[in-house]
Amino acid sequence: MTTATHTISLRKAPAAAKDAIALLRADHEAVNGMFAEYEKTRSDARKKGLVADNCTELRVHAQIEEEIFYPDVNAVLKDKLLVPEATVEHGGVKDLIAQIEGIEPDGEMYDAKVRVLSEYVKHHVKEEQNEMFPKVKESSLDLVELGARMAARKAELLAGNI
Ligand SMILES: [Fe+2]
Ligand SMILES: [Fe+2]
Fold this sequence. Notes:
By secondary structure, the protein is mainly α. The protein has helices spanning 4-10, 20-40, 44-76, 82-101, 108-138, 143-160.
């Protein structure tokens, strides 16, 4: 008797693992998508929900970059200012997140803070994608292994909802 059916089920592919850069790019897209959604939203409750989701996403993203991606990248890049510059930018993003989370979406100041956060993030993402990632791709880093470590840490942080 053939065991073909059984063999096929054993060969089922594992969930496709993203390399480190694909993972970070997908996060960037998700965050920018949420900012675009915010601009179209009139409801304060919906705005609050979007901001809460986006701040969690941004915090987790910044943490996996700072804990895992940036140290490995800094070790192989010749430009020793790229990672420290990105870390300083994270500080600016986190300060603004803290300001936004402390207030209610009840007026122009809230919308203004969210817009400035979105501008900070867009600037930062552009530098990562246009300056840092191309250099990382040319480096000797194992981006699949790095991506797996980052995905695992991301899942852990999201489960703890930091
Ligand atoms: Fe970053
Ligand atoms: Fe990033």
